[in-house]
Design brief:
Number of domains: 1
Order of helices and strands: HHHHHHH
Helix content: over 70%
Strand content: under 5%
Radius of gyration: 16 Å
CATH topology: Ferritin
Distance between the termini: 46 Å
Shape: elongated
Largest sheet: none
Structural class: mainly alpha
CATH superfamily: TspO/MBR protein
């Protein structure tokens, strides 16, 4: 195992969550959020636990895919992971700071498509890396239903 690369992958994957928490922290208590959240919304304490776990899984997936990829695959791999993490990062300020459920839902749909694309692409490189992303896909799909309830 390449420890420095592994730690770098985990940190890269955690960045959207760390940055996103700045936008989430105070806004989950806002009147807008509290009055509009659907009844099937999990308790607030569930989100950091789930997201931290998912970001770590994304980092592990990135590491496994990167160390298994051929040199010719690494450029596309880096772009797909970067696109996915950027879309993930954008959702939080769109939803919580701008309180724009339509733009944030569009972002979530793009994130779902990006995740499916990523899963399919890396399946050819490392099956385990690909399968590790399935819980992430399930969670963001669930998040889209939560987001949809705000529109």
């Amino acid at each position: 195992m390449k420890i420095k690369l592994f730690v770098t992958c985990i940190i890269l994957a955690l960045l959207p969550g760390i940055i996103g928490s700045i936008f989430t922290k105070d806004n989950v208590q806002s009147d807008w959020y509290q009055l509009n959240k659907p009844s099937f919304t999990p308790p607030n304490y569930v989100f950091p636990i789930v997201w931290t776990t998912l970001y770590i899984l994304i980092g592990i997936s990135l590491y496994l895919a990167w160390t298994s990829a051929k040199k010719s695959q690494k450029g596309k791999l880096a772009k797909l992971f970067a696109l996915n993490l950027i879309l993930n990062l954008f959702w939080t300020p769109l939803f919580f700071s701008l309180q724009n459920p339509i733009l944030s839902l569009i972002d979530l749909y793009l994130l779902i498509i990006s995740t499916i694309w990523l899963i399919i692409f890396i399946y050819k490189i490392n099956k385990t890396s690909s399968l590790i992303l399935i819980p992430y896909l399930i969670w963001i799909t669930f998040a889209s239903f939560l987001n949809l309830a705000f529109t």
